[in-house]
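> call design_seq(struct)
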């Protein structure tokens, strides 16, 4: 499962960089370590979660 979380974090980071470049004309310094993924506390919430607030 950790592999999937790392892959999803990398993809989300790439998408955020692409969107920032499209909207502002410059990228943002964000790598996959800046995108945190977790396992939700309840199975009915899914397999992976991206917390919105620290």
């Amino acid at each position: 499962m950790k592999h999937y979380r790392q892959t999803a974090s990398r993809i989300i980071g790439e998408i955020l960089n692409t969107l920032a470049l499209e909207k502002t004309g410059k990228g943002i310094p964000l790598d996959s370590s800046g995108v945190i993924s977790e396992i939700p506390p309840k199975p009915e919430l899914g397999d992976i979660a991206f917390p919105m607030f620290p």
